[in-house]
Each structure stands twice: as C-alpha cells, then as structure tokens.
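Re: that chain you flagged

S.,

Sorry for the slow reply, it's been a week of failed gels. I finally had a moment to sit down with the sequence you sent. For the record, here it is as I used it:
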Amino acid sequence: MKENNQQSAFGHPGIEPRWTRSAKDGVGTAYAASSRVWYSLSSGILNEIYYPTIDRPQIRDLQFLISDGKTFVHEEKRHLRSEIESLAPHALGFRVTNTDPEDRYRIVKEVIGDPHQDGVLIHTKIEGDEGFLSQLKLYVLLAPHLEVGGWNNNGFAREVAGQKVLAAHKGRTWLALGATAPLLKSSCGYVGRSDGWTDLMDNLQMDWQFPFAADGNIALTGQLDLSMGYEFTLGLAFGDSFHSATTTLQQSLDVPFDRQRERFIEQWDRASKRIVPLESAGGDGGRLYHTSRSLLLAHEDIRSASPSIGQGKIGGKDGIFKSQLPREY
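Prediction finished late last night. Pasting the structure tokens below so you have them in one place:
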C-alpha cells in the first residue's frame, strides 16, 4: 500500500506528452461572444478544449475513472461503450451515454458550454442497480495541456469557499475544475509516474494525495462523493488568474444545470430563427443540415479567432460533426 503524501508529487517531469486521437465525434460551443470556449468529443469523453480562441487547445482530455475498489478500474474512453446524440436540433451540445461492457451501470452526460462565461459544464448521472452503484467509486481525471503544450504545466489542489477544487496554470492561462458533488480526495501528479491513473491502476485505490505538481506533464485527479446521490454537475472554467478561473467556476456551478441548458439551447435557437426551410431535401429530417449550419456559426470570428480544425467533414451517426485534427500543434 502506498501512503498519502502531502508533499510535491514525485516523478518530475512525467512521460513525454502527446495529444489525443484526431478523429472527433462532436464539436461544440455556446453561441455567445461572452463564452470563449470550444470543445470536442471522441470515444465518449471531452478532449481538446479551446480557449480563448478556437486555435488554442488547453487540455488533452477529461474523463471519469470508475472502480469498485476491489476487482476493476474502468476508463470511459477505453472500456465503456459510447453513444452520442445532439441535445437539440440547432444547439452544439451533446448527450453522451457510456455503458459498462457487462451492462451493470451507465454514465449519462450532457455537455454544454456555459452560455455566459468561459467554461464547460458536464451534467452527469450514473444509472444502474442500486446495490451495484453503492459499491462504485468515481474519479475525474484531467490532463492539462495549457498554452498549447503538455510540458511546463503546474497543478494545484486547493480549497475555495470550503470546497476542494483542482487548478492548473502555465503563464497567464489558468483552469479550475470542480463539481456540485464534493471532492473526497484530490491530487496532482506527473503523468505515468505519480498521476491518478497510475495510482489507481496499481491497486484499484487512490492512495496518493499530492497538493501540487510543478513544471511538467501533469494530470489532476479527484474522487467525487456519491453518498448524496448519483447525479451532479462537473465544471471546468478558464481565466487569466487563479481568482478569475475559480470565480467563473463557482458562478457556473451556482446556476442550476437545467437553467444553463435552457439558456444554451435558447441562444442557438435564436441564432437559427431565419434558417431556410430545407429539411425536406434530406432524408434525415434536416438533422445534418441544422448541425452543419450551427457548426459554421460556431466558427464565426468572435474574438479575432480563426478555425484551426482544418480538413474536416460533416457526416456520421446522427449528423454529428467529424473532423481530422493534427496530432501535434
């Protein structure tokens, strides 16, 4: 057994950082100039999230790890069956359902951009037999690649207004991760050496709790408290300081997710009021048409940004956008 360590994480600087897979199942953002965040999805999880312009990815990926603490650890992107669908005809928000290969549980996530601020919200619900769910432990794992790179990232586990949050920064770019469910444990580690994934894969337990990991390829890990229920909202916010990122995070999570989702969809519906009625020209009731038009709107020049998604193509299941991104930036 490894013992909790309240010092800096070991294993500096971590293994060589890599970007995630290039094939995407969805691309989204909020339709508001006040929200400068874009996100992409593949294999049932969020990966490159862009801020403050569409050509600057700030994370590698964000996913859940699931364990019973005794017999298995599941990674969403590797072990679960994934299905994705749009939340609404015009909105670039998604419902992702990731299912245990033995059908014992499933994780249903609704992913939207904060309709007013620089953040992403992931409403999460775990479904299954209560007897089985009561044995589960759920962890969130985030790999920052701030300022378009995996090296030289700095991670911190902090407490803000009585709640644990995970934060990272490089230069003047900060991110903060938290949830409406409390974090029971939190840790910052070097990827492949002392990060949460390495910790859990060793003995199915989160034994390390490092308060910081500096100047390396890092990952942030938190165990979510499921004792009050299996439904919560996870938030990831950005800013130019620790204070601005954590303030945005708190403000985003303070608003009920249903209200945030309603506003998110309303913004996209308003932007599509004058859409030409061409639904009958396609065989899918206009699904691909609506998604394609919204995708073009998402690439508008909001803050002197230019699309970096390159040679993309519209298509695939449910008309979700699929693209090919370069593996390195």
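What I noticed first: Confidence is low (pLDDT under 50) at residues 302-329.

Talk soon,
D.
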